[in-house]
Design a protein that fits this description.
heterodimer, A: 382 residues, alpha+beta, Butyryl-Coa Dehydrogenase, subunit A, domain 1, Butyryl-CoA Dehydrogenase, subunit A, domain 2, Butyryl-CoA Dehydrogenase, subunit A, domain 3, 3 domains, 4-stranded mixed beta sheet, 4-stranded antiparallel beta sheet, 8 strands, globular, B: 343 residues, 2 domains, 11 helices, 10 strands
């Protein structure tokens, strides 16, 4: 019997205090005109805002203090992230470094990497990209062809990464490369490297997305040198880091709040007395959202206790991203408008931009199909 | 899950294994009262699990009672355990003594109204009283008061829901109340209690539909391998698992928020979300089972026919979603996040 239990999480008093503090901070920032709630919070790159988050201790919250962290709990971090996303704060610059790169460096990086990078990440002044996908390697990540070969004092990297979000604006990128030839165990021989961008041997070229925006990049390595102490973990240990720990990053509120601003705008547009159909749809989304939040906080609680809820995390991402995608599809029926290109605050533009971003939700961080495969494995079918 | 909860679940499993074979489900659907099963549940105190100790309960938390109920629904027990639990809870809330035996509640149809203001007698039409023909007493609710009525010698029309559970119609004309008391918002509370237990039961039935589907997908061989090895089937089962997981989470959240009295928001979320999952989940479970699951012989229908019945009882998804939607629209978009986070 497969029983899914999403145990309740009682947020500590400190977390609730923090929630209030973050809300006040966001309200003040918004009032001062520092930002307007964005349609896609964690894709909005704003170094000024990230530095303010760093000053306030909202980045690297779980890390040790001697690396610039704040030794807070996973639940306190959860509260900050969900408040940032629900408030539409432009957290994109530090998001990846805070969510996963810093965590990996802390767990598996060299002492030099920790000392040099973690305090800067926590300060909100050092940003990261993820270098996994390649032109011929997406869902089948073990097929990566970027190669790193051992040289005196380090490694030389050659190859090409794609879909590298923000690599034109970030400082570092964690790159997955093959350090040993592919053998029977196709997951062996992969290693993660910390690559500093903007140095000789690495070139960043834009890839424009379907609406003409520039988030993605192609990153080309040509005999790029990485020192030994910029490996993450032992050579060959990359796969378990990529699939194991990152799997847990799938259950956060960033997997179901991407279109929350459109949900709010739609509720506003439908007014205080919506008709039957509109009331029905609003209620349905709220029921889904409340349930997703329960599941997601519960997974955060499991992680806090040191459990490994890989299947639960995959379930949250699968239904969370489906929820995100459905919001524009439903409200376009209820609020007659022609979706319009543009980054303005009008409903037509918000709807338009959300629709154009939506296809990515069920692709990034593991496609829906890959997730369902993982869930099936968890159910004992594979 | 603590040790006591595990013991409780083991007890329910044991009783169902002993007293709830498919022959019993069949005879219950034919109209026979499963006396031995009910007695076994009574003997271990499960039927009074939702009552406070002062009202004769077993000293369990409300959450424990709902855990037992959910497991009983996993086993598709053909008895009014949910109804007895909420009838007792309503009586305890009004400070009334809880009668022995199986209890039911009325009215359960939204447009039915019972006038019990006199507190001695009451009148009105009540349709589809769950298990009304098998329960000695019903707890009846007016707007702000409740009472107990004896149902002995029931002669009204008896319909069945899709699962074959009896739903009895009764017409009361100055019928005597054995006891009565005030309970502010009694009728509204009955509706919430009903939606809450049906949500919990559906979560249990979905778990069973998933369990049957995983088992079948592992056993049924086509094209030389178990159908669970085909990616198309795996993805179907992953979606079913997601619906079951969401239902489990929504039911737990509603139960936790309703320890003293049902929480309107959490119950509306649960009945909406789980009602939707019931339909989607049952569809997938049947698709995975193919023709085999379409037979009377396979056990899947005991779970899916309950899902198809329960999602429409005590308000369907549209009803609860609209309630939620109207409340949020009236409060305004800015109130949504504080509602969700409780701050």
């Amino acid at each position: 019997m497969h029983e899914f239990r999403f145990e309740p999480v009682r947020l500590p008093a400190a977390a609730e205090e923090l929630r209030r503090e973050v809300r006040d901070f966001l309200a003040a920032e918004q009032a001062s005109g520092a930002f307007t709630p964005s349609r896609n919070s964690w894709n909005s790159f704003d170094p000024g805002f990230s530095r303010k988050c760093g000053e306030r201790g909202y980045i690297g919250m779980r890390w040790p203090k001697n690396y610039g962290g704040h030794e807070r709990s996973a639940l306190e971090r959860y509260v900050v992230t969900e408040e940032m996303l629900a408030g539409g704060a432009p957290v994109g610059a530090h998001w990846i470094a805070d969510r996963q790169s810093g965590h990996q460096i802390l767990r598996h990086g060299s002492e030099r990497a920790r000392r040099e990078l973690l305090p800067r990440i926590a300060a909100g002044s050092c940003y990261f990209s993820i270098g996994m996908s390649e032109p011929d390697s997406g869902s089948d990540l073990s097929s990566v062809r970027t190669r790193a070969t051992k040289v005196e004092g380090g490694w030389k990297i050659n190859g090409t990464k794609v879909w590298t979000s923000n690599a034109h604006q970030t400082h570092y990128m964690i790159t997955l490369a093959r350090t040993a030839p592919k053998e029977e165990d196709r997951h062996a021989g992969l290693t993660q490297f910390i690559v500093e961008l903007g140095r000789p041997g690495v070139e960043v070229r834009p890839i424009h997305n379907l609406y003409g925006g520039h988030d993605f990049n192609q990153v080309i390595y040509d005999d790029y040198f990485v020192a030994d102490d910029m490996l993450i973990g032992e050579p060959g240990a990359g796969w378990s880091m990529v699939t194991g720990e990152l799997a847990f990053e799938r259950s956060g509120p960033d997997r179901f709040l991407s279109t929350y601003q459109l949900l709010l705008a739609s509720i506003r547009a439908l007014g205080p007395q919506p008709d039957d159909r509109a009331a029905n749809e609003i209620g349905r989304f709220v029921a889904h959202l409340a349930t997703l939040r329960r599941m997601s906080t519960s997974v955060a609680g499991m992680l806090d206790r040191g459990a490994q809820p890989a299947v639960e995390a995959a379930l949250v991402k699968d239904i969370g991203t489906a929820f995100e995608r459905e919001i524009p599809e439903v409200f376009r029926h209820l609020i007659a408008t022609e979706p319009t290109l543009g980054d303005g605050q009008s409903y037509a533009e918000l709807l338009g931009m959300t629709m154009l971003r939506a296809p990515g939700f069920t692709i990034r961080g593991g496609t829906r199909e890959i997730l369902r495969g993982m869930i099936a494995r968890g159910l004992g079918l594979r | 899950m603590n040790g006591l909860q595990q013991d409780l679940l083991n007890t329910v499993d044991r009783i169902c294994a002993e007293h709830c074979p498919r022959t019993l489900r069949e005879s219950a659907e034919a109209g026979e009262w499963p006396a031995a099963l009910w007695r076994a549940l009574e003997e271990v105190g499960v039927t009074k699990a939702a009552l406070p100790e002062a009202a004769g309960g077993a000293g369990l938390e409300f959450g424990d009672a709902m855990l037992a109920l959910r497991r009983s629904a996993y086993h598709a027990v053909p008895v009014p355990l949910a109804e007895t639990m909420i009838a007792g809870r309503l009586l305890a809330a009004a400070g009334l003594q809880v009668p022995e035996g199986a209890l039911t509640i009325a009215p359960v149809v939204q447009s039915d109204v019972l006038d019990i203001k006199s507190k001695k007698t009451f009148s009105g039409e009540a349709r589809r009283i769950p298990w009304g023909n098998h329960c000695a007493h019903a707890v009846v609710a007016g707007e702000n008061e409740i009472g107990i009525v004896a149902l002995k010698g029931f002669t009204g029309l008896i319909e069945k829901n899709l699962a074959g559970e009896p739903r009895a119609h009764a017409s009361f004309n100055a019928a005597p109340l054995l006891a009565s008391g005030s309970l502010p918002g009694a009728r509204a509370r009955l509706e919430l209690e009903g939606a809450l237990v049906r949500s919990v039961q559906m979560a249990g039935a979905l778990e069973r539909a998933l369990a049957y589907s995983l088992q079948y997908a592992g056993e049924r061989v086509q094209f030389g391998r178990p159908i669970g090895k085909f990616q198309a089937v795996q993805h179907l089962l992953a979606v079913l698992a997601a619906q079951a997981a969401a239902s489990s989470a929504a039911a737990d959240a509603a139960v936790e928020a309703s320890a003293q009295a049902p929480d309107g928001f959490a119950v509306a979320v649960a009945k909406s979300r789980i009602g939707e999952a019931a339909g989607k989940g049952a569809e997938i479970a049947h698709q995975v089972h193919g023709a085999m699951g379409f037979t009377r012989e396979h056990n899947l229908h005991y779970s899916t026919r309950r899902l198809w019945s329960w999602r429409d009882e005590f308000g369907n998804e549209t009803y609860w979603q609209s309630r939620l939607g109207r409340e949020i629209a009236a409060r305004g978009a800015d109130a949504l996040w504080p509602m969700l986070t409780g701050l």
